[in-house]
Task: structure prediction
Amino acid sequence: MVASHFHEQMKRLNEDLLKMGGLAEEAVDQASRSLITRTRADLARQVIRNDSRVNDMENGIDEQCIKLLATQQPVAVDLRFLTAALRISAILERTGDEAVNIAERALVIHELNPMDEIPPTLMEMSVLAQEMTRKSLDAFVRKDVSLAYDVCCQDDELDDLNRRLLEEMIRWMMDEHRLIRRGVELILAGRHFERIGDQATNIAEAVVFLVEGLEIRHQGGEICQDAIKERTSSGNSNQK
Result:
């Protein structure tokens, strides 16, 4: 009976974490659409209003994790799950904060001149950041380590796009001094997308820890490349 109750609590915690992930993913999508379309200020305001929901869910998940750790003294995979849940809930809260930052940039740009085009590099960053967020959450749902490593590898691509955007905006602002404020807002938006990619990478790293008990934080992009090569090599060997 005790074990059954514990697993029910773990199931509820998992469901709450997935719900929080859905809220954070939706916030990133809405903020991105508001920025890219330049006509949906209502979406940006909705992201800002809904941020408290993500914050409240983090508090609730933290309370559940701490209670289970204190009363059940879990071991092995259950302990790793609770540790990962604490980590992921904090990451999702930061993802929601970055979505709010993008929404705020969208509102400023809308006031400056909503008709001006958004740089293609920033649009590419938006697509990639959203893809990484979705894939990291899918990796958690499916406990898919290969997908998690894939997200980690994409982080370098998003970093490169952020550097390219910065260089483009600096050149643009030097040529068009009257557009400096807009250029600064676009640079900030790019930085927020880059941070969303960082948070997606953090979730992916937590998935690797959960499934394999392997800590890959702060080890650079080389480890994901090595892991993919190893898995590919293993898959080819199995086929033989």
Summary: The longest helix spans residues 76-112.
